[in-house]
């Protein structure tokens, strides 16, 4: 049977299955008093018609709903800061937060429909790669989306929240240059990630302005993870002309580089200066404490939550992209190159 291009209703599915609307409702609600063959038929037609339960009306008892905060990687120090900001902002208006981990392939039409059925009012996706098909599924389900630190944006009208990544990359590199370093490497995240591109361009802009050449092999990509720092940091330090300073695209990566340096008998910051990015708890707990670019992660989570709630309420927003200011925080992992064991 051809699928109606308009949004399907319970009556549409019931007519296709030759059953009552009440029977379709029972299937949706997981009731047991439906014959297995009928249940299977109705479930198949719900998928065929791309049925999405209507969102709760304002004023309903369930209207407050919940907001889904989704990650596509395991929860880490960066994630917890985002979650705390979103939870705090939600608590101010009595809205709950559900945290989930979904890889890109898990985001399907069924995923969008299930979110609506579970009472979600909007989705906040963190450092997620969203495809046009996934965006369309959310749109059909009338679920607003806000992306934090997006890896890609297939449409320019997708609402996103980030920080001044270019300015942060510029400040981190200028700090190292001011200490006399010229052999400065950058170890970042995925090559296609918008936030990584901005940090890398800030690094390159500072190097070019100072007349410091970027040595071949000094710019490397990763996934902003600790193991990236250990592995790619080792590769950088084993180069014939090793860097005297490394700007890492995340605090986790920076700590991995510190471990790679220690395995080679190098001291931080006497032999190698390192700057991270994020200013999570691990930066302050490092040994030595990490010089890093503070990204206002809690504030970003809060802004994303408030924006998602505005979109869910049908309000218009002033801008599809919001950037919050970054700030360089100097601690013990950087020092003048004249102190380094490797000649500058």
Key features?
344 residues, alpha/beta, disordered N terminus, elongated, six-stranded parallel sheet, six-stranded mixed sheet, Rossmann fold
Describe the protein's architecture and organization.
The model is unreliable at 1-5, 56-63 and 339-344 (pLDDT under 50). Helix 6 (132-140) links the parallel strand 3 (120-126) and strand 4. Helix 1 (10-17) packs across helix 2 and helix 9 (226-237) crosses helix 10. This protein folds into three domains: 10-48, no CATH class; 66-163 and 297-324, Response regulator (Rossmann fold, 3-Layer(aba) Sandwich), CATH 3.40.50.2300; 165-295 and 328-339, 3-Layer(aba) Sandwich (Rossmann fold), CATH 3.40.50.2300. The strands form two sheets. It has a six-stranded parallel β-sheet, sandwiched between helices. The chain has a six-stranded mixed β-sheet with strand order 7-6-8-9-10-12, with helices on both faces. With 344 residues, it is an alpha/beta fold. It is built from twelve helices and twelve strands. Helix content is 40%, strand content 16%. The longest helix is centred in the first third of the chain and has 16 residues, at 77-92. One of its GO terms (molecular function) is DNA-binding transcription factor activity. Keywords: DNA-binding, Transcription, Transcription regulation.
